[in-house]
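Input/output pair, single chain:
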Amino acid sequence: MTRDVVGLAFLLLVTVAIFAYWRHTLRAHEVRIDALDVRIHVNGIRGKSTVTRLLAAVLREAGYRTVAKTTGSAARVIGPTGAEAPIPRRGAATINEQIDIVREHVSGSVDALVIECMAIRPIYQQYSQDRIVRSDITVITNVREDHQEEMGETLEQIADSLSETIPRGGILVTSEDRPRLQERLRRNAAARDCRFIVADEAMVNDEEMSGFDHLQFKANVAIGIEVAHLLGIARHVAVEGMWKAVADVGVVRLRWYDIRGRRVLWVPLFAANDRESVILTFQTLQAQFPADATVIGILNNRADRGRRAELFAAMVPSDLSGYLDQVITFGAYEDAVVPAMIAHGYPADRIHRLGDSVDPTLDQILDAVAAMIPGPQGVLVGMVNIHTPQAELLIDYFAQAQAGSPDEDEITASRSPTRAPRGLQRLHHAAAHPEFHPTSGGTGADA
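Output:
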């Protein structure tokens, strides 16, 4: 009996100690967060990582010492100079990672934090906002069909789930363009006494889009401009900052490669895996596809993403048949996906199984792609998911072909002086040209 009492007392002491430690940790976190001038929480279904990067770049360019953190295809911490670093993980990511990032990177000299929401379940989204980020401004990029198991089956339910990150008494900015979903978000914002702002992509002109070195959407840029306006940052400063932002790992870059004597434009569209985003991207890219090129779509189906496989099997005949001349299936679910596409009217002779049911080598994949292109050039579009054995073979092939080119990976690019905020560029210039520095004793232009 005594042993049981001692054991129970020990358990109680351990529980109290853990609770006290967590309370202390959370309180220290709140002190760091509350000391910041600007806190921005970026939520939504698509474009979160991109918008996080753009907003951090806007703030840096305006002189805010800013820390940003993305979660997307590759989690990154982006420091006040724009230099970024990967986030090491020993296990599965949890939303408590956000607290660790703030503890390690947000010091007294940091003015602003831009952080991508990690949570999916509504209860965790609410906790993330109310206890971890405590944002003044929340961005909901858009409302799309994804994560229905956790967030709800309808778009309205998904909008309500995302609304758990709306700041009480703060500001909500969205680029969602459908009136009924805008109204849903507006109503949810009003319930929290939160100002509601729609970032309209029509406000962004083509000249402002011309400075990006990758596929970018006006809706994302519109968010950057609206947030800049809220903070009193000049529009041209915001746009110049966004031009300097390093693109996320999953961004669509258009590059030409040789495949068995065919000139092929590779379009890695894996990060866009909902209906609206994919259709919008095809509409945006179509003008950049050569008129005589054969367009081949890859449906890259992961075994743990059955709903996405089902979605794209329906999309190919109904939404993408006008864009795709041929379709390749990678990964899982080929016995379900192929018959579904045929049943909905996509020609069987234009569908090619190269996934788990075939387990092809890289040479077999390249031979098959080349055989589908009767002319000198084609377009190859990867869709649905990133990781399957066949997609990784193809991605590695393109990476090897790109080796030795002047292009840099995103971490190296983030350290380029040309991407640094204008204030830091001035310091670099002064250090490189001491003859123009007022304290150098030189005879500079201001001497």
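The longest strand covers residues 294-301. The radius of gyration is 25 Å.
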